[in-house]
Biotin carboxyl carrier protein of acetyl-CoA carboxylase (Roseovarius indicus), 165 residues
Amino acid sequence: MANKTHDTDVEFIRALAELLNDNDLTELQVKREYGDNDSLNVRVSRKTEVVTQVAASPAPAAPAPHAPAAPAASAAADTGPGEDPASHPGAVTSPMVGTVYMQAEPGAPPFVSVGDKVSEGDTVLIVEAMKTMNHIPAPRAGTVKRILVEDGAAVEYGAPLIILE
């Protein structure tokens, strides 16, 4: 029986590695509970090269296919040097790894724009993960101060998406 569990665990880990590659993810962590004192905790990651470029003069921004680049530009301007938007008390963070969509479908108006007032539970954007569209609700009522992601951008778990104040 132990060998059968081992074989299924190996298959599970291979499936996670395939999921990692198919969705162009850098890391995936899963905990599988089997019983009271029996679990499997797996972290699959791949080495990626991060290139940081410092420009002396601003480069022209490429237009985004579905959304204007203005929200991201204003977000960068509002963030002071060394300030992490994820630590902002009004930050709404991604609950999962996936792709962000700012509107329900291409051509539709965005769920929120900078300056919009939202109520608790209102959908502020969608994160697609494994072909499932997950509506991200506002955790509380407030005004959208910054949008930190662009439509179609990939996000990691815990990445700041918007700032509500």
The chain has two domains: 2-45, 70-164. Residues 2-45 form one domain. Residues 55-79 have pLDDT under 50 and may be disordered. DSSP finds two helices and ten strands in the chain.
